[in-house]
């Protein structure tokens, strides 16, 4: 069974930033792809009206997600000028770096859900 680490975050565009979300997501995807060889995937979707963005990060383990937060820290800080985080879901047991980030988000009022126990899954195309 696959035990990939999955991080899902939902964001709402800041005032006047709705039109920026698609380009922001594409730039972020390019950054992750070029700076994180362990990333298994990254996907981003917007709501019908374009005001919300959902990002899905796929990593082989929690350590790779922690590495992502270290590498992308400045990028994430800049993105916060365009979006407000409205929810986070973690599938897997967070490492120490992500654990700290989750605590900070919870303290800021962001709902955080952690589902640490994988029960089924596979990688690849069936």
How far apart are the termini?
14 Å
Secondary-structure-derived class: alpha+beta
SSE string, helices as H and strands as E: EHEEHHEHE
Strand content: 25-35%
Shape: globular
- Gyration radius over CA: 14 Å
**Biggest sheet character:** 5 strands, mixed
The number of helical segments is: 4
* Poorly predicted runs: none
Reading side by side through the largest sheet, how are the strands ordered? 2-3-1-4-5
Rounded mean pLDDT is 92
Share in helix:
25-40%
This entry's quaternary arrangement is single chain
Care to count the β-strands? 5
Question: Brief overview, please?
Answer:
By secondary structure, the chain is of the alpha+beta class. About 35% of the residues lie in helices and about 30% in strands.
């Amino acid at each position: 069974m696959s035990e990939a680490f999955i991080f899902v975050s939902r964001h709402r565009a800041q005032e006047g930033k709705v039109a920026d979300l698609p380009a922001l997501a594409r730039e972020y995807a390019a950054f992750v792809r070029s700076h994180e060889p362990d990333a298994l995937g990254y996907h981003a979707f917007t709501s019908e009206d374009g005001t919300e963005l959902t990002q899905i990060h796929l990593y082989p383990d929690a350590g790779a997600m922690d590495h992502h937060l270290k590498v992308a820290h400045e990028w994430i800080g800049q993105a916060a000028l365009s979006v407000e985080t409205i929810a986070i879901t973690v599938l897997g047991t967070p490492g120490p770096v992500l654990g700290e980030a989750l605590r900070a988000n919870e303290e800021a009022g962001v709902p955080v859900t952690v589902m640490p126990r994988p029960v089924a899954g596979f990688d690849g195309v069936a």
